[in-house]
Design goal:
3 helices, 4-stranded antiparallel beta sheet, alpha+beta
Length: 98
């Protein structure tokens, strides 16, 4: 197939910032994350679990929503609670622009 055979809905390139962080929680759960900051997604960040490859577009509002981290990363509630304690420190405010 050739690129002309595809009907692109979006195709863009931008500079992003990526933070790689590995930490162990008080309950000895290990997280290896890549956190991408981009101009897209209204200020939310792309959080990738490097161990499993699972990812989500997350903002502080998602940390308050019951079950989001458990569903996105397929982890237990206890693990999600510990992960949320870290993510609240790195996920900034969501911004809406016209």
């Amino acid at each position: 197939m050739h690129p002309k055979d595809y009907d692109f809905l979006s195709d863009s390139t931008e500079q992003t910032s990526t933070r790689y962080v590995t930490f162990i929680t008080p309950s000895l759960n290990r997280f290896d994350l890549a956190i991408l900051t981009t101009d897209r997604f209204y200020g939310k960040k792309i959080v990738i679990d490097m161990q499993t490859g699972r990812s989500g577009i997350l903002g502080p509002d998602d940390l308050e929503e019951e079950g989001v981290l458990e569903s996105v990363f397929r982890i237990t509630k206890a693990e999600a609670d510990e992960l949320a304690q870290f993510l609240v420190l790195v996920l900034g405010a969501v911004t809406f622009t016209d």
